[in-house]
Amino acid sequence: MSDEPRLLEAGTHLVVDTAWRRLQHYQGDSLAATYPVAVGKPSTPTPLGHYQVIYKMLNPGGVLGTRWLGLNIPNGNYGIHGTNSPALIGQAVSNGCIRMHNHHVEELFPRVDPGTPVLIVAGGTVQVNTEGSGSYTVVAGDTLWLIARRFNVPLSALVNANHLADPDNLQPGQVLIIPR
């Protein structure tokens, strides 16, 4: 959880979930907006990890749509951008970039500056029981703090419900109870 305070202190930050194909825009600890996105196809997946917006471009055109937010992902030219194929939003079809509807990226663009943190994760599976609580399977890139925010439950409730001796040590495949 060492990166979590950095995200909170940064003010604006973005969380892209490649499995759920959505981008969440946070202002401090408040969720400002959620957008559907297209992500990398299996042969060219969107790289998971902690990155930053490094530059912005108006009207790059073509497959990039009306806005481009370049990311500092090594070994490639990756970004968050619009699209000329809006029907593909919600699918895994890109070469690794994150595609948004043009009107969504136009809404987000003025709210994001170079240096904005971007966390890219691949969400786990969620199961809900009859009492309304559920379970969540941890995937690479997850932190307890992000899971708490995703399900809108207090961090302490997750720790207590799962009897976590070391909440900083989550393992992919680990199943957590999500309390109601």
Write a structural description.
- This protein has 4 helices and 13 strands.
- It is α+β, with helices and mostly antiparallel strands.
- It has 2 domains: about 5-120, L,D-transpeptidase catalytic domain-like (Beta Barrel), CATH 2.40.440; about 125-180, LysM domain (Membrane-bound Lytic Murein Transglycosylase D, Chain A).
- It starts with a helix and ends with a strand.
- Residues about 1-10 and about 125-130 have low confidence and may be disordered.
Structure characteristics:
single chain, 180 residues, alpha+beta, L,D-transpeptidase catalytic domain-like, Membrane-bound Lytic Murein Transglycosylase D, Chain A, 2 domains, 8-stranded mixed sheet, 3-stranded antiparallel sheet, 4 helices, 33% strand, disordered N terminus, glycosyltransferase, cell wall biogenesis/degradation, hydrolase, LD-transpeptidase
Reconstruct the topology from this structure.
Blueprint: H1 4-9, E1 12-17, E2 22-27, E3 30-36, E4 39-40, E5 49-58, E6 67-71, E7 79-81, E8 92-94, E9 98-99, H2 102-108, E10 117-121, E11 126-128, E12 134-137, H3 144-151, H4 155-162, E13 175-178
